[in-house]
């Protein structure tokens, strides 16, 4: 069927519910793709692994040993120190700039920051030169290869989850009020920053970094929305389309974070509410939900507390999307950053060179 018609594409939450509840197990295996076979050591990378004993044991190991709340608590020094280096790097760059501001390709900087956190958590190593100052250093020469692999695998980086700037001004002031200007925002502040949370939810709704789920394959005949779906059928859930369903969302294409504080305040993004599930749902959903949300919230909070952020010449943010599983931005986002707190706060951050 897939050979003749291509994969089934699910774009409504009702059918997604059929996929992720009654048929979740039947649809839990992945189609084998060329990148997974050749670059993923014959689908040994567990995001590509067929459903079965191997996938179950790796997923369990990753969930317990790397991404559980307890482990993330133990590894929090890594996220925090990487964030410090990242912010301090940006600050040093702006200090070197002519008018105490710096022109930065923020999407690329965030990409490198993401690599550093993940690598540090996994193998206790990082690419030296957190972001830009040492971008020409030896390790970053491999960046092109890594990026190509990422594109081929359809992995997304946290940078893809941070596309909006319009709201940063408001947020900077909200942070000043809630956290003050005498200390840096901390992870424990996030629960009180409701508007920031709503912005992250709305961004993940309109621009889910994984805009389609990875391709599933039915391991036996099943029924979906009243249709007979034969064994072997390939299926993807189009999260991007589902998140813009006008039957569910008023002004579905507009960026309105307030909706998550009013009419949609009951919706979360962890896969319980199928109307908005940027991490997908059920057994093949993203195992890094907690980690992803922790890093996105704190990074955004620190960036907007620490800097005034403008686009070059005040241009609107170019939201055009490129091709790829991971919904990358077509054009990298360049911004101008000016520090907005007293210098001692930046200087007190951990120093990348001492690392
Ligand atoms: C905001 C950030 C992120 C979002 C929105 C996101 C979203 C997703 C989505 C939509 C899927 C596909 C699930 C499916 O096919 O139904 C997925 C799978 C996956 N994600 Fe994430 N993800 C994020 C960050 C991460 C991070 C940081 C990691 C690694 C530390 C990660 C590791 C994985 C893995 C390993 C899978 C495959 C799971 C499996 O096949 O069992 N994700 N993610």
UniProtKB/TrEMBL annotation:
What residues does heme bind to? 286
Would I find Iron among this entry's keywords? Answer: yes
Q: What is the organism field in this record?
A: Hibiscus syriacus (Rose of Sharon)
Cofactor(s) recorded for this entry are: heme
* Name of the protein described by the UniProt record: Cytochrome P450 82C4
Keywords associated with the record: Heme, Iron, Metal-binding, Monooxygenase, Oxidoreductase
Instruction: List, in alphabetical order, the GO biological process terms annotated in this UniProt record.
Output: terpene biosynthetic process
**InterPro entries to which the protein is assigned, alphabetical:** Cyt_P450, Cyt_P450_E_grp-I, Cyt_P450_sf, Plant_Cytochrome_P450_Monoox
Q: Which family does it belong to?
A: Belongs to the cytochrome P450 family.
- Could you tell me which Pfam families the record lists for this protein? p450 (PF00067)
Q: Does the keyword Transit peptide apply?
A: no
Extract one GO molecular function annotation from the record.
Answer: oxidoreductase activity, acting on paired donors, with incorporation or reduction of molecular oxygen
């Amino acid at each position: 069927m897939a050979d003749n018609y291509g994969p089934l594409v699910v774009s409504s939450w009702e059918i997604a519910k059929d996929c992720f509840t009654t048929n979740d197990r039947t649809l839990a295996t992945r189609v084998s793709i060329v990148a997974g076979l050749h670059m993923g050591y014959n689908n040994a990378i567990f995001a590509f692994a067929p459903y079965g004993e191997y996938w179950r044991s790796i997923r369990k190991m990753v969930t317990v040993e790397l991404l559980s709340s307890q482990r993330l608590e133990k590894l929090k020094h890594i996220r925090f120190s990487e964030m410090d280096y990242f912010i301090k790097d940006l600050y040093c760059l702006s200090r070197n700039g002519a008018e105490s501001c710096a022109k930065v390709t923020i999407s690329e900087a965030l990409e490198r920051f993401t690599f550093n956190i993940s690598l540090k958590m996994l193998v206790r190593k990082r690419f030296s030169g957190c972001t830009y100052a040492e971008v020409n250093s030896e390790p970053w020469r491999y960046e092109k290869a890594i990026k190509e692999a990422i594109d081929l695998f359809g992995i997304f980086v946290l940078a893809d989850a941070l596309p909006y700037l319009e709201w940063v001004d408001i947020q900077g002031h909200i942070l000043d009020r809630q956290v003050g200007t005498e200390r840096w925002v901390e992870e424990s502040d996030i629960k009180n920053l409701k508007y920031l949370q709503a912005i992250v939810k709305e961004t993940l709704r309109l621009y889910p970094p994984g805009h389609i789920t990875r391709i599933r394959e039915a391991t036996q005949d099943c029924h979906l929305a009243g249709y007979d779906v034969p064994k072997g059928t390939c299926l993807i859930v189009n999260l991007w389309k589902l998140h813009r369903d006008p039957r569910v969302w008023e002004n579905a294409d507009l960026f309105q974070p307030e909706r998550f504080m009013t009419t949609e305040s009951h919706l979360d993004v962890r896969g319980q509410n199928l109307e908005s599930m940027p991490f997908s749902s059920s057994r093949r959903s993203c195992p890094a939900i907690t980690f992803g949300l922790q890093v996105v919230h704190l990074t955004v909070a620190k960036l907007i507390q620490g800097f005034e952020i403008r686009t070059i010449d005040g241009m609107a943010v170019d939201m055009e999307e490129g091709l790829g599983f991971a919904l990358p931005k077509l054009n990298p986002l360049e911004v101008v950053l000016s520090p907005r707190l007293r210098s001692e706060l930046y200087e007190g951050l951990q120093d990348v060179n001492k690392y």
